[in-house]
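Annotated sample (chain length 415).
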Amino acid sequence: MTARFLILVLMALAARTAQAQAPAPVPMPVFDPTAYLAPLGAAERAAAGVPPAEARKHGFELQQLGMQRAFSGDTEGAIAAVDAQSPAAPARLPDAAARAGVLADARAEDAVDAIVAQARTRRVVILNEAHHVPMHRAFAMRLAAALRKIGYTYLACETFSGGDAGVPASGQVTTATGYYTREPTFANFVNAALADGWKPVAYDVVTPPQPGQDWMEHIRVREQGESDNLVARIFAQDKDAKVFIYVGYSHAFKSVPGATGDIDWMAERLHRATGLDILSVDQTEFYAHPDRAAEHPLYAGLLAAFPAPAPFVLRAPDDRYVVLGVAKGRVDMQVIYPRYAVHDGRPDWLRTLAGRSPRPIPAALLPKQGRRIVKALRLDAAQDAVPADVVLVEAGKPAPVLMLPPGEFRYLYEE
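Output written by the structure step:
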C-alpha cells in the first residue's frame, strides 16, 4: 500500500495519524453557508505555514485548501494543494516495461459508452471521485444522463446530507444539500439529474469516532452503515431498483480474493447484502496534474499510446477491462482522462464534459484592488442555491471567464 493510496483513499486516517506528530489542526470556523471567499482565506492561512518537508503531517490543512480552491473555481490549484501532501513522486517505470505489461494489444473505448454497455446487464453502478477534482463530477453528469436512458432511476450520492434533510426535493441544489455539492460542477450534475427524473437518495454515515475506538474500526462501521442505508432506502423497497451510486475514493472497492488485512469497503458489503453483480468504476488515478511528477508513473505512457480526445477505458484482448494502480483487482473498469488545455483561465473539460460556454465577467464586477469571488446564479435561483459558477478574480491579473450553460444569470460578488 503506497503513501499516495493512504493519502488519497484514507485521507482522514492520514490526517489523524499526523496528529501524533504535529499539533491538532484548527477546525475551520463557521461561515455563512453561501460564502466562498472567507473559507478560502481561512484555508489559505492555515496552510501557509506548512513547510514542504512536513507536508505529510499537515494533510488536513492541505486537503481543506484543495477543497476550498475547488469550490472557488481554481481547479488546478486544488490538485496542486492536495498533491503537496505527497512531495516525493513515485519512481518512474521504464517505458518498455510499461508498454509490455500494460499496453500490449489493449484497445481504448469511450468511457461512457463502455460503462453503459456493461451496466445494461447489471442493476448497480458505483463510480468514485477524488473530492478535490470537479472534472470527475462533469464525467459523472454525462454518465448519469446515459444511465438514465437505460432505466436507472436512483441516484445515491455520498455528499447528500443525512436522512432526507439534504436531498434536494425542490429540484434545486442548495447549500443544505451537502458539503461537496457547494462546488458548482457537482451542483450542476445533481441539478441535471433531478431535471432528468432521478430519485436522489442520501445514505452516508458521518459520525466522529467514539472514545477509544480504533480508527480502522470506525471506517468499518461507516462502510457497513452506508451499505445498510442503501439496502433499507432502496433495495428493500424496490426489488427491481437500478441504482447509480456516486462515492469518494475507496468506497467503490470490492475485496481482492485471498487478500488478508483488507477493509471490506461499501461496494463489497453491498454486494454481499444484495447478491447483485455490482459494476465498480474508478476515476481517481489517471488524470493530469499541474506538476507532472505527481501523476501516476504510467499516465504519460498511456496517453502516448492512446491519444483519445475524451475519457476512455482500456480493454484487453480477452475482453476484460484493464485496471491499474491501487484499484487493480478492486474495481471492474478504470477511466483515463486526456490532458485538457486551459483557455481564459478555465480548463477545457468545462466545455467538453460539462457542456459549458465561456462568458466574460461583467466589467463592473472586476476588482480595482484586492480580490473578489464572483458568482453567477440563474435568475430563478433560490436565495441559498449553489451558484452555476464561481471564480476568484484578483486585481491586476487576467480575469478568468465564467463557464455557464445557456440562460440568463444574475451576479453576486464577495470581497
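Annotation: Residues 215-235 form the longest helix (21 residues).
Annotation: The domain at 99-336 is CATH 3.40.50 (Rossmann fold).
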